[in-house]
Design brief:
single chain, 6-stranded antiparallel sheet, 5-stranded antiparallel sheet, transmembrane, EC 2.7.13.3
Length: 582
């Protein structure tokens, strides 16, 4: 029934009453919500603090282990036996070779036993085409592993290199003669199971999990409640540069996230815990908060409905009445049976409609009479102007005693004045107005045919039945003769054309006179466009005013420079309005 805009609804009494209600009940609800979140955040922060300490300690221990392994790698590279084997293998006898091999195997085995995170140690010596390891002793050179490890060393500055599912530490001795070729590469392969066991000690809560991840190598290890979807969601968020702080959503379930980073290792250790494990102690409080919120919302709805029925709806009825009044509908009073304050307002509104309609009718009739009087006054101003010019032509023909042209002129003049005096109508058909203007042009042609050429197009049939104020075309043609063409010695040209479009009709009068500059044309156009009540209503200003009164502000005269180099006057008639509207 009522169509109230959203912006208006914000300012209604109903909304204000609801805001007052909320101002009372909302602080209580907000306090409960605050206490819940404060308890939850405290529990979450406590878990995060403890977990962060554990994660940082884990990374520090792992870094120390890897630092020790790297020290052992460099010690191996500095070993004289390794350098002897790599550089003088071809001149060593079998006994020396076997002794050196046995020495290196024993040394690798002793180093391997010093750390639980070492699964195996390899020395790749390309010059002797052999690979030595702590677990498999001497074996054929492993070209695939050598190339991968060497690429990892040369391609980046990471300390850890991931090969398939294993983590490796590696370093090499470069050939002095060829800096791009390595003499020997020492590789330490870490034990994933032992790393997972150490990682699993971080999972102190039920259903929690932990994983090691690198920005370059991706996920390295995972322990605890392994969930591929959680790890995948974390990786996707990191790839999209989303800042992950405490929570991550995975398959409509939230997980509490904590992480620590080691710059030395270039690794993150991330632990996740279902949010319900964090909020489990607060469930009872949460249930009571929900009951309180539902009760408050129910009370708000009852209060809102009562206010709408008793206050807002009667006000909307009054607002709709004023909207109808704004649209000019003054014949629709408010029908009601109320006896309260709103009934009093409705009765006063209905009385106001009656009085307003009476005042508008009286004012409208007064304005109509004033407009008709103004139209008659403007038309009466233009008739004497042509009469003066007609007497001038009669005088000229009488002086030269051209009786034949004088007879023709008087006949045309009779038709001209018969058009003016045949009835008292203010408006005529455009076909008659153009016929009258053509008669005037033929009259002038009797005088100026030797030096002025006239191109007067036929009026399109679509424009013939348009009603226009009397005498709007002939005075424009008269001005063209008087102010431009009469002063030309020869080759004067007057052109009258017509155009019709969907919503407007155009009558265009042009000449090739050169008496007006662009500045003068512009000033005359400004005078016509900005006509006021005190300005003298003669000539083209007269015509423009009458057309505007008849067809509206978008109609009238529009002046510009003609393509013939003279003045171009365009009469524009908008076709949306009928003459009866004026």
């Amino acid at each position: 029934m009522f169509n109230i805009p959203v912006l208006f609804l914000r300012k209604t009494i109903l909304v204000r009453l609801l805001i007052m209600y909320l101002a009372v009940i909302l602080p209580i609800i907000l306090l409960g919500i605050y206490l819940y979140h404060w308890s939850y955040n405290n529990a979450s922060q406590e878990i995060s603090r403890n977990t962060s300490v554990q994660l940082t300690s884990y990374l520090d221990n792992l870094n120390r282990e890897i630092q020790w392994m790297e020290i052992q790698q460099f010690d191996i590279l500095q070993d004289n036996e390794l350098q002897k084997m790599a550089l003088t293998w071809s001149i060593m006898d079998n006994v020396e070779r076997k002794s050196s091999m046995s020495y290196m195997v024993n040394r690798l085995t002793s180093i391997k036993n010093t750390s639980p995170y070492i699964k195996d140690i390899f020395i790749h010596i390309i010059s002797i085409d052999k690979t030595i390891s702590a677990s498999n002793a001497v074996q054929d050179f492993d070209y695939a592993k050598y190339e991968y490890i060497l690429t990892g060393i040369q391609g980046n500055e990471r300390r850890l290199i991931k090969q398939e599912d294993t983590l490796n530490l590696s370093t090499s001795i470069m050939d002095r003669n060829n800096v791009e070729e390595s003499i020997a590469v020492v590789q330490i392969e870490l034990d994933n199971e032992k790393l997972k066991t150490a990682l699993n000690t971080l999972n102190v809560y039920p259903n929690s999990g932990t994983f090691l991840i690198s920005e370059e190598m991706g996920v390295i290890l995972a322990a605890g409640m392994e969930s591929t979807s959680i790890i995948q969601s974390y990786e996707n968020a990191v790839n999209r540069s989303i800042d992950i702080t405490n929570l991550i959503d995975v398959e409509d379930e939230n997980y509490h996230i904590d992480k620590a980073y080691s710059e030395e290792l270039g690794l993150f250790v991330v632990t996740y815990l279902p949010e319900e494990e964090v909020s489990r102690p607060l469930n009872k409080f949460s249930n009571w908060a929900i009951v309180f919120a539902v009760t408050s919302i129910t009370a708000l709805l009852i209060y809102a409905y009562s206010t709408y029925r008793l206050v807002h709806r009667p006000l909307l009825l009054l607002v709709e009445g004023f909207k109808r009044m704004e649209k000019g509908r003054l014949d629709t009073p408010i029908e009601h049976e109320k006896t309260d304050e709103f009934g009093f307002l409705y009765d006063r509104y209905n009385k106001m409609l009656i009085r307003l309609k009476m005042f508008i009718d009286r004012d409208y009739k007064h304005k109509m009479m004033m407009q008709k009087a103004e139209l008659k006054q403007l038309q009466s101003q233009i008739n004497p102007h042509f009469l003066y010019n007609s007497f001038f032509i009669l005088n000229s023909l009488a002086k030269i005693e051209d009786t034949e042209r004088l007879e023709l002129f008087t006949k045309m003049l009779g038709e001209y004045f018969r058009f003016i005096t045949r009835n008292g109508e203010n408006d005529v058909l455009l076909v008659d107005e153009i016929k009258h203007a053509r008669t005037y042009t033929e009259i002038q042609n009797l005088r100026f045919s030797r030096r002025i050429t006239v191109q007067f197009d036929e009026l399109p049939k679509e424009m013939e039945r348009i009603k226009v104020p009397r005498l709007i075309v002939q005075p424009i043609i008269e001005n063209a003769y008087e102010h431009s063409l009469e002063k030309k010695v020869d080759e004067g040209l007057l052109r009258v054309t017509f155009e019709i479009h969907d919503n407007e009709a155009l009558i265009i009068v042009e000449d090739n006179g050169d008496t007006m500059s662009d500045e003068e044309i512009h000033q005359l156009a400004q005078r016509i466009a900005n006509v006021d009540e005190t300005q003298e209503m003669t000539g083209m200003i007269n015509i423009h005013r009458r057309i505007v009164l008849t067809y509206g502000e978008e109609s009238g005269l529009f002046l510009s420079r003609s393509s013939l180099n003279g003045l171009k006057v365009m009469v524009r008639i908008k076709l949306e309005k009928e003459n009866s509207d004026v």
